[in-house]
Amino acid sequence: MGSDRSKSSKNKPRKMIPKGLEAAHSMRDKFRNACATPVETLRKISQDMLSQMEAGLQSDGESRLRMLLSFVEHLPCGNETGLFYGLDLGGTNFRVLRVQLGGKEKRILKQESKVDSIPSEIMTSTNEELFDYIARVLADFVATEGVDCNLILGQKRELGFTFSFPVSQESLNSGKLVKWTKGFAIAETIGQDVVKELQAAMERCKLDMHVIAMVNDTTGTLAGGRYWNEDVMAGLILGTGSNACYVEQTSEIPKWPPSLPKPEETVINIEWGHFWSPHIPKTEIDDDLDAESVHPGQQVFEKLFSGMYLGDIVRRMILKLAEQACLLGGVTEIPSNMATPFVLRTRDVSIMHEDESENLENVARVMETIFGLKELPLEVRKVIKDVCEITAARGARLVAAGIVGIVRKIGGRKKKICIAIDGSLYEHYTKFRAKLHEALVELLGQEAAAKVVIELSKDGSGLGAALLAASHSKKDLEDKCDKQ
Ligand code: ADP
Ligand code: MG
C-alpha cells in the first residue's frame, strides 16, 4: 500500500486497478464457506436451541439460556377497558403513551404518545435525578389528558413499564437492576428495585399513578401482538440487540417457585442473545469482534446478526480483504478509519446488499461517504456486496433456526403460531427478512411454514406494557381472558 493520493489529486483521479482481485475472490469464497449454513446445520442448531430452552426451564444456571420468568399471568385479549399508560425505556430515547381501551368490539379508542430523550448528563447522574426526569415527563404528558379520557373519579392511573435492561424479577411489579447498559451508569441504582424508584419519583412529582407491570421489550412486543391476535405465541426483537420470548405452560416449568400462584401459562424471556451451539459457523472475524467488545464471551449469538454488530462484521471482512488480498488494488492507501469499530453501520450494509443497479452505485456511494474511497472498480464493488450478502444470510438463517427451536417447543398446542417482531433490522432490511423467511420454509417445509406467521409489531413494546397493565389491573378482573 502506501501510495500518496494527495499527489495525484490535482490530476485526473487515478483509476484503481483491481490487482488483487483473484486473491480477493478466493478469500471471499473461503469466507462464504466458513459462514455456510446448510439446512442440516440449521436443524442441529434449532435442536440445540430447543434442548437449551428445556434445560433452562429445569433450574437456574443449568443452561446458557436463562429462561427468565416474566410473572405475566394474563396476556391482553381485547376485552380490556379503561385508560392506561405505558412507559418504554430501553435506551436514550423513551416513549410515554396513553391508551383508551373500549373492550372487544371497540378496541383502542384513542392512543397518544410522546418521545423524549434522557439528557446524557442525567444518564450518569443519580437515581433521583434520573427517575425524577422520567416522572416529570410522564406528569407533563398526563397533564395533556383530554376530557374524553374516562378515568373514574378517585381511581389511580395505571402504568405498564417496559424496561429493557437486565433485571432480576420476583414479581410482575418489581425488579432489581442487575447492571446498566447502553450508556447509563448510575452505580447506586444497581441492586435497587427500579419499580420502587419510579414509584417514589412519581410521588415526588405528585403524580397519582401506580406501576402494575414491568416487562422487557420482548414481552411487551408479544403482549402488543396478542391483544390483536390470539395466535401470537412468541415475541422477537431484531434491532440493536436481539432477544425472544414465548408463551409456556407452567406445567412445563420445573423451576416454577412452589410459593407462587401458578397460572396455566406465562411468558418466558429466553434471553436468546447469549445462545450458543457448536454447530454455529463462526469465523476469526467473529472471534476478534467478540474479544474486542465491551463484554467478551457474552451475547455471542446476538453478535452474529443484530443491528449493532452486523455492520462491523462486514467492515472487518472488507478490511481483511484490503490488507491480505489487496482488494483496493494496491494503488490506494487503506483508509485509516477502516480500522475503526462500528464506522460501517448495519443500515449501510443493507443499502449495499440491496443495491440492484448495474454499476452498484449505492455500494460506491457508501464506500465513498464512509471511507472516502473514490471510483472503486465494479469488480471490487461486487466483492463488497458479496460480503454483505454472506454475512446477512448467515445471520438471517441463524435467526430462522432459533425461531424453529421455539416453534418446536410450543409444539402442537396451536394450529397456527404467530410471532410478533419488533426492530429496525427486521423492519427495514428487506433482504435479511427475505432470507429469514426462506430459511423457515427450508427448515419446516412449505406446509408447516405456512402455519408460522411473522408479524411486524412496530414499537409494540410500549403499547404492550400499557396493555399488560390493563390485563393485570385489579379494576376489571372479569375482563381477563385466562384461557388462551
Ligand atoms: P432498538 O433495538 O434500540 O430499540 P431499533 O429497533 O430501531 O432500536 O434498531 C436499531 C438497529 O437497527 C440499529 O443497530 C441499526 O443498525 C439497525 N437498522 C436501522 N435501520 C436499518 C436498516 N435500514 N437496515 C438494517 N439495519 C437497520
Ligand atoms: Mg426497540
TrEMBL record:
Signal sequence extent: none
Residue stretches of biased makeup (Basic residues): 8-17
Listed pathway(s): Carbohydrate metabolism; hexose metabolism; Carbohydrate degradation; glycolysis; D-glyceraldehyde 3-phosphate and glycerone phosphate from D-glucose: step 1/4
Domain of life the protein comes from: Eukaryota
Domain Hexokinase C-terminal: 234-470
Catalytic activity: D-fructose + ATP = D-fructose 6-phosphate + ADP + H(+); a D-hexose + ATP = a D-hexose 6-phosphate + ADP + H(+)
Any GO BP: glucose 6-phosphate metabolic process
Keywords from the named record: ATP-binding, Glycolysis, Kinase, Nucleotide-binding, Transferase
CDD domains associated with the record: ASKHA_NBD_HK_plant
Residue numbers spanned by region Disordered: 1-20
Pfam families in alphabetical order: Hexokinase_1, Hexokinase_2
UniProt domain Hexokinase N-terminal: residue ranges: 29-227
InterPro entries tied to this protein: ATPase_NBD, Hexokinase, Hexokinase_BS, Hexokinase_C, Hexokinase_N
Enzyme Commission numbers on file: 2.7.1.-
One Gene Ontology molecular-function label: fructokinase activity
A single cellular component GO annotation: mitochondrion
Enzyme class of the recorded protein, top EC level: transferase
Similarity section: Belongs to the hexokinase family.
PANTHER family noted in UniProt: HEXOKINASE (PTHR19443), HEXOKINASE TYPE 1-RELATED (PTHR19443:SF16)
Name recorded for this polypeptide: Phosphotransferase
Organism of this sequence: Selaginella moellendorffii (Spikemoss)
Taxon lineage: Eukaryota, Viridiplantae, Streptophyta, Embryophyta, Tracheophyta
